[in-house]
Amino acid sequence: MSDPRGLLGPGDPEPVGFVDRGDTSPFVLICDHAGNAVPKALDGLGLEQAELDRHIGIDIGILGVSEDLAEKLGASLVYQRYSRLVVECNRRVTSPDSIALVSDGTIVPANADLSPAKRTERLDEIVVPYHRQIEVILDRRASAGIPTILVSMHSFTPSLRAKPFQRPWQIGLCYGADTRFTMPVLDELALEANLIVGKNEPYGVDLAKDYSIPVHGEERGLPYVEFEIRQDLIGEAAGQSEWAARLGAVLPAAYRRFQVATA
Hints:
Layout (H helix, E strand, L loop, with lengths): L15 E4 L7 E5 L17 H5 L8 H12 L2 E5 L21 E2 L2 E2 L8 H28 L5 E8 L14 E4 L7 H8 L7 E3 L12 H7 L5 E7 L6 H26 L1
Helix pairs in contact: 2-6, 4-6
């Protein structure tokens, strides 16, 4: 049977990574910017590999943290393999930076003058399968009446090139209207000495432009937490293991707080 896709070819990786550990854990992890793959047809987006390897192309270190954390929690993990510069999985299609023309001062040549058909290809073949897999696992749990905490994993650069400023936070929590689970997590993190925690820093959740937390969390009524870990802390395996261990203790403790508060 011929491949109906027009963008992704036989040599390209599948967009969705999925580790299914069943539904015994209350947590489901998602990772929007885990990879920096580019379809062969797009020829690296006209960029040097060094650009795809920095924060504009991938959330550095976060996949390693997410894989380790999901294993510790016995939780399922859904992650995206393609670069956010190909198409941004955490933006609504109406957002102007769904396919960025410029990112932190870097012009993305292959994103200029895209026809509607070419934009639709990227959405249909990369974004849609990712969010469909998240929907499948969340629907499965909802149908079985299983309580779910959505955990969204990200990392952030210590400083932007376009707007240089040393970001002091080691970890940030991003949230919108629903803070039911975010607050217990903040309470647990506050118990750790010398940990600088950002509240909606370095980013908040934009309910109008963002996708993952607004749609899978807020619109479903699911409690959630969205983490942003500073990339220089998790660029190597040792740091990834350290942060997975930290969050592997924080999340169950926060869940116990959450259960008491919502009983």
